[in-house]
Specification:
By secondary structure, the protein is of the alpha+beta class. Helices cover 27% and strands 20% of the residues.
Length: 179
């Protein structure tokens, strides 16, 4: 995988680690299923205390943050490999990924130019939307990440054939639509 990446022309230090990429991916997946809202708290309060036997070469939380950047492409490939087949009827909905508090929008720099201010039925936010499609057996069919101001209805035609969604997806173009 490293051989296929584009180089930026700068020399970078390649630190060896005893903590494997699969362990990083496992912790990130556990975090999503854990109910914790903060990765650092999850790592320091749960993984470091209760999962030491499962991860004997555990690294510090700062080093884990450095290692998790390498897991993006493999995690995406893993998620794509877990997609299931359409069983006839699909369900779609979206959720938000807030990247900062509303008061910090103008000073936020990490996702500047990518994240957008959007509105849901709950209220305003700054960040992204994740659109997920599942089948009748609650298996994942498709996933799309869009800026916060992206119209939910524009993500649908690329993802499914027949679907049921909430009122955010209702439009004349999608009524009776089939791919």
């Amino acid at each position: 995988m490293k051989a296929r990446l584009l180089a930026d022309g700068k020399a970078h230090r390649e630190r060896d680690t005893s903590f494997s990429l699969s362990e990083v991916m496992t912790i990130l997946i556990l975090f999503q299923a854990s109910g914790f809202r903060c990765l650092k708290l999850f790592y320091t309060q749960h993984v470091s205390r209760h999962l030491r036997r499962e991860f004997p070469q555990l690294v510090s939380d700062n080093r884990f943050v450095e290692l998790e950047q390498q897991a993006l492409v493999p995690l995406t490939a893993f998620l794509h490999a877990r997609f299931s087949d359409c069983t006839g009827i699909s369900f779609v909905d979206s959720t938000t990924i807030k990247v900062c508090h509303d008061l910090r929008i103008y000073s936020h720099r990490v996702f500047k130019g990518l994240a957008r201010r959007g509105k849901t039925s709950v209220g305003w936010f700054y960040g992204f939307k994740v659109h997920l499609v599942i089948n009748g057996r609650v298996e994942l069919l498709a996933a799309v990440i869009t800026p916060g101001n992206f119209d939910d209805r524009r993500a649908v035609p690329k993802m499914v054939r027949r679907l049921f969604g909430d009122r955010g997806y209702i439009s004349q173009e999608l009524t009776g639509w089939q791919r």
